[in-house]
Design goal:
Helix content is about 35%, strand content about 25%. The chain is an alpha+beta fold.
């Protein structure tokens, strides 16, 4: 395949997901007025008025890539369709408001299945106060596809971008990490785990809990300096923060919070809990940087764990104890080097 100028265009497997995003971003903006932040963060940030901004994010879930008919309840799929976008708004510190949903389905798609998916979407919307106000439907001869665009609002001076981390900041994460990665293994009919622990890990995969209230509280506090949601894996997403902020990050892998259910799963499966926590992705927790006393000042010791420190550098994530550079590739839709 060649461009109009004759230069060869590599295939997407070679280019990679983030290479494709870079090419899109390279085209620039047709109009800069009103755009505070475009491509390169969890949400686009657009001017509303002198005091507030509009947050916009889009996520797409594709059959046989993100979900399978026989591995999860359709209500859970619907819930997740909205929840993953809610997590993007949470990562900016905003309040989600309204969304539009597009569905591409074959003419033979089971309408009862779709109705159950919609029940999950609207249940999630009621929980977080989000309306579905429009969208599109179209026929496809390929897989079932859902695409949702979510809008949120927040004060302009509270937005937490990826680019604010500073040397001396500490690195924090919410919740426990690696659970969704274990849930993905269990969704493939690995049944060695006790029922309650199995249900917990599967729920973490299929019904993530976006940290909207926590994100908003952190943004309002002024104590956090940068934030991202953990969708592609801890190492990969910290890499995004490090590069956007032009700093390095050192992580104490032994301090990464691991749930009892994940520990038991890894004991039985002989997988590494630490490796799942670092690279598996889809946890939809928050990773952030901020002043060392952030947890104490906000009384968040039960919600956040300090796992490392920001140091001077140019975008590298390292293991604090060994000094080794962590693999920050994470999940990439177009390459074979995927972590999940």
């Amino acid at each position: 395949m060649a461009s109009s100028g004759g230069a060869r265009v590599s295939d997407l497997k070679s280019l990679g997901e983030f290479g494709l995003i870079d090419r899109i971003a390279a085209h620039g903006l047709a109009r800069e007025n009103g755009v505070i932040k475009g491509i390169g963060d969890d949400c686009a940030v657009l001017e509303l008025d002198s005091d507030s901004v509009l947050l916009v994010t889009t996520d797409t879930l594709v059959e046989d890539i993100h979900f399978w008919f026989d591995r999860s309840a359709p209500e859970g799929l619907g819930y997740k369709i909205l929840a993953v976008s809610l997590s993007d708004v949470a990562a900016m510190g905003g309040t989600p408001r309204d969304s539009v949903l597009s569905v591409s389905a074959s003419a033979t798609c089971d309408s009862g299945y779709l109705e159950r998916v919609f029940e999950g979407i609207f249940a999630c919307g009621r929980r977080y106060g989000v309306n579905i106000v429009g969208g599109d439907t179209t026929r496809t001869n390929g897989p079932l596809v859902f695409s949702l665009t979510l809008m949120g609002r927040m004060p302009a001076d509270h937005v937490l971008y990826r680019s604010g981390a500073r040397p001396g900041d500490r690195i924090f994460v919410s919740g426990t990490l690696g659970d969704a990665g274990a849930g993905l293994h269990l969704a493939g009919n690995d049944d060695r785990l006790a029922e309650k622990k199995r249900e917990y890990l599967l729920r973490r995969l299929h019904r993530p809990l976006p940290r909207v209230e926590l994100g908003r509280r952190l943004a309002e506090s002024g104590l956090a300096t940068a934030m991202i949601d953990l969708s592609d894996g801890l190492a990969s997403d910290l890499g995004h923060l490090a590069r956007a902020s032009s700093v390095d990050m050192t992580v104490d892998l032994e301090k990464i919070p691991i749930s009892p259910s994940l520990k038991e799963f890894c004991r039985l499966s002989r997988l590494s809990a630490q490796q799942l926590a670092v690279s598996a992705g889809e946890d939809y927790e928050l990773a952030l940087t901020g002043e060392p006393e952030l947890c104490h000042k906000l009384q968040l010791n039960n919600e956040l764990t300090c796992i490392g420190e920001v140091v001077e550098g140019c975008g590298i994530v390292r293991d604090l104890k060994s000094g080794e550079v962590l693999d920050v590739r994470g999940f990439d839709h177009f390459t074979e080097e995927c972590s999940t």
